[in-house]
Amino acid sequence: MSKPPARERLAEAAFALFDERGYEQTTVDDITERAGLGRTTFFRHYRSKEDVIFPDHDRLLEQVAERLRTSSHATALAAVSDAVRLVLLHYIAEGDLARRRYALTSRVPALRDREIASVARYQRLFREFIASWMAGAAEPDPLRAELMAAAVAAAHNHVLRRWLRGESPEPAREVDEALGLVIRLFTAQADGNGTTIVAFRTGQDIDALIPALRQLAGEPPA
Amino acid sequence: MSKPPARERLAEAAFALFDERGYEQTTVDDITERAGLGRTTFFRHYRSKEDVIFPDHDRLLEQVAERLRTSSHATALAAVSDAVRLVLLHYIAEGDLARRRYALTSRVPALRDREIASVARYQRLFREFIASWMAGAAEPDPLRAELMAAAVAAAHNHVLRRWLRGESPEPAREVDEALGLVIRLFTAQADGNGTTIVAFRTGQDIDALIPALRQLAGEPPA
To answer: Which residues of B touch A216 (CB under 8 A)?
Structure first.
């Protein structure tokens, strides 16, 4: 069995030391000593002690942006719902590392703030994507874009948090369900008027009325 | 005219220096010198240079929590929508100071991250409030609580950002409209099935049917 690459060895050493001594009490020198590597190697992979903890959000954000650019989904909300899965799958692929980071960021406020700020960048990317998609529409609606982006991010965060806590055995399926709920939330609301109840009396057979009802509801003919 | 209190004088001096020299290049000593006050006075009011920039989120968060605790609104979503107005009104009361902070946090990533993390605390408070309200319901739905909290925070942030940019002349009215949209979004979707159309044939008078229709729609009797 070959040794894991330097990047992983440093992360492994850092997390072990953070658990043993606490985050604040651990230095970069402690980490390199534990990993059996030099400071130069450390700074080739990470800018700081804090950097060791976080996944490569810059690269992941770029992948999500690329996914949006090349999306063939019919709506902005569907495209964003598809793209956010990349973020969830990234954490799942990290496995135990992601869970140790979660435990650590829950304990150290400065790290939790940085994690929150990282997640906010995805939400911003989604908001700008949806808003620019809508810019071509008859009535661009920046508030709606903001609400959609927030809902997609919240659905993702909900499932991610459950998975990190060991409460979600099937996060990929669960996030699809959660995103499905988000899409229904905004689709049902397309006219902004809420639930519509139509009551009428007629001598016509109900089957004959279905096409008219579909038209009323703004659906395509069957 | 009497001098403004020390706290405001320090903030005023700090913002003036951040504008002139840049945030990183300004020290606490620069700030106290400009304000004509001592270091002891500075540290009586603020823990650090960074603290001068931000409003008192701890106190504001406590006010919002208190508002939720004493709320008499009929739904969790209405209670949270009411409470988030406190945050918006706080920024509006700050006036020019809030706008200068916005300009500064837009330029300095570390400050922007801290501002984002502060805002995330309100969203978390809302999520926990809605989830605990729902805990008594027949079917608690933590995902729905998370989506509601995210939508309320997003509606607030949308209007706040517009006001900070000078794009919203009536932010208090605008936030009410935005929160109204959020409430409609979730109300229309109460059954998770979107728009409901009920078609039926009957010999009964329509007025006699209204109570039954209300019951079907899950509304209280008129």
So the answer is: 197
Q: Do A197 and B178 touch (CB under 8 A)?
A: no
Q: How far apart are CA A130 and CA B186, in angstroms?
A: 20
Could you give the C-alpha distances from A139 to A64, A101, A132, B58, B203, in angstroms and in order?
27, 43, 12, 39, 43
**List of residues 6+ apart from A174 with CB closer than 8 A:** A159, A162, A163, A168
**Taking a C-beta distance cutoff of 8 angstroms, is the pair B182, B155 a contact?**
yes
ipTM above 0.85, yes or no: no
Length, in residues, of chain A: 222
Per-residue tokens: A184: 């229904």
For residues A95 and A45, the answer to whether their CB atoms sit within 8 Å is no
**A181 contacts B192? CB cut-off 8 A:** yes
Q: Model-level pTM?
A: 0.80
Q: CA nearest B148 in A: which residue? A: A151
**Could you count the other beta carbons within 10 Å of the beta carbon of residue A144?**
21
Instruction: Show residues of chain B in contact with A215, CB under 8 Å.
Output: none
Chain A nearest C-alpha distance from B205 (Å): 10
Chain A contact for B195 (CB, 8 A cutoff)? yes
| Cα distance between residue A71 and residue B4, in whole Å | 56
Secondary structure (3-state) at B62 = helix
Rounded to whole angstroms, how far apart are CA atoms B38 and B28? 10
Q: In this predicted model, what pLDDT tens digit does every residue of B155-204 receive, in sequence order?
A: 999 999 999 999 999 999 999 999 999 999 998 754 444 444 545 556 66
